[in-house]
Amino acid sequence: MIVPENYGQKGFRFLNADAKKERIKFRLINNLIIIPIEINGKELSFILDSGVNKTIIFNLSENDSIGLSNPKKVALRGLGGGESVDALLSKNNKLSLNGIVGFNETLYVILEDYFDLSSKMGTTIHGIIGYNLLKNFIIKINYRTKVLHFYNAKTYSYKKCRKCEVLPIQFYRKKPYVNVKVQLDTIRKKLTDVKLLIDSGGSDALWLFEHTKKDIVTPKRYFKDILGEGLSGAIFGNRSRIPKLVIGNFNIKEPTVSFLDTTSTKNARKFKKRNGSIGGNVLKRFKIWLDYPNSQIMLKKNGSFKQDFNYNMSGLDVVYDGKQLVKEESVKKLTDRYNNKVNGNNTISFVTNFSYKFRPSFKIRTVVMGSPAFRAGLKPEDVIVKINRKPAHNYTLNDIVNKFKERHNKRIRITVNRKGIILKFEFRLQKKV
């Protein structure tokens, strides 16, 4: 491995110049990697997003002061059909995570939280970081253990791996692209070559841009869906499924695919060779070595490789709605310090204690028209009280979303608070594609 001597003089580096690696634990929520990063001494939570070439902050409260230096107003534009958004550009910031540090880093701070990712993910997310953190290291991503290893690109030596696949990556505007193949129909079984953005900041499996190749069109079986939010607004598309995705020698069967229209992808299509994106629902099935210095990616399948590609079959878009005060009851058997019964007869005494704790609250943001939840009568702004008889505050938002992905025809019982009235509903998950 040969790396230019001056490689990495800008951007992040090891604080200890002799360090060979750094280990970072991460949280995995909705297929997205969440890492803690200190900005000018203040710790914030970021999505590690290989699909962005800027470090962007979009959720700062009064308690999150990070001391921006010499900010100036700029406009940013990204996926979505809307206009550009106002942001502040600030240079010469110090960013760090464990023994890795970046001096003189540039930040973009969006003045309004258009994404509202914190409510959608059930945890506070302050921003996204990509190219500047990734460009100087070889990074091993282990989705199973939720650990990142940052390796010194000058000293790292790859071990022989017969079960691994090494693919070249191409950069356009500091974003990584890889060539793979997709089978788009079941009759001809033809494989179509596509160039996809490696997008660790996307939770879906695949996005394909309609008509960027003759064969890339929405299949007959699909349903319209809001796929997410971009800098320029909501991202719409047709959610479907294709027979196969081929990455090197790896064959991934029946992945879900979202076909995006030209309106939502106008800016992304400026790179004429791009056909779509490969996201977290595919990436999480591998142990990954992301190697920007040598323009390559190495993949080794993990225990998630053969998992089914599921999606939310309820029609409910549930979001975090802050904290609520919950009365909790605990029952304890009365014993002495030797664990003997307190009273000497044949009865056992219990004491009941009550405590009040702040627990998460969840509400329905939208209900897809015609979906099982819509037909059952659920409505936006309904506050969820119970799901399948279990109090909602005992779930995380990730738990709730995963429950709606479990299996076709699964029964869901849900109790909600609608403007002070407790209502009960029942429906079954319905698989559309």
Descriptive keywords:
Pdz3 Domain, Cathepsin D, subunit A, domain 1, mainly beta, 433 residues, ten-stranded mixed sheet, disordered N terminus, six-stranded mixed beta barrel, PDZ_sf, 3 domains, 47% strand
Compose a concise summary of this entry.
The protein has five helices and 31 strands. Strands 14, 15, 16, 17, 18, 19, 20, 21, 22 and 23 form a ten-stranded mixed sheet that branches. A six-stranded mixed β-barrel has the order 4-5-10-6-9-8. It is mostly beta strands and about 425 residues long.
Please describe what this structure looks like:
The chain has about 425 residues and is mainly beta. The protein has three domains: about 15-135, Acid Proteases (Cathepsin D, subunit A, domain 1), CATH 2.40.70.10; about 165-300, Cathepsin D, subunit A, domain 1 (Beta Barrel), CATH 2.40.70.10; about 315-430, Pdz3 Domain. Helix content is about 5%, strand content about 45%. The strands form five sheets. Strands 14, 15, 16, 17, 18, 19, 20, 21, 22 and 23 form a ten-stranded mixed β-sheet that branches. Strand 30 (about 410-420) and strand 31 (about 420-430) form a beta hairpin. About 35% of the residues are buried. The model is unreliable at about 1-10 (pLDDT under 50).
- The figure for the number of domains is 3
Shape descriptor reads: globular
Under CATH, the topology of the largest domain can be stated as: Cathepsin D, subunit A, domain 1
The portion of residues assigned to helices is: under 10%
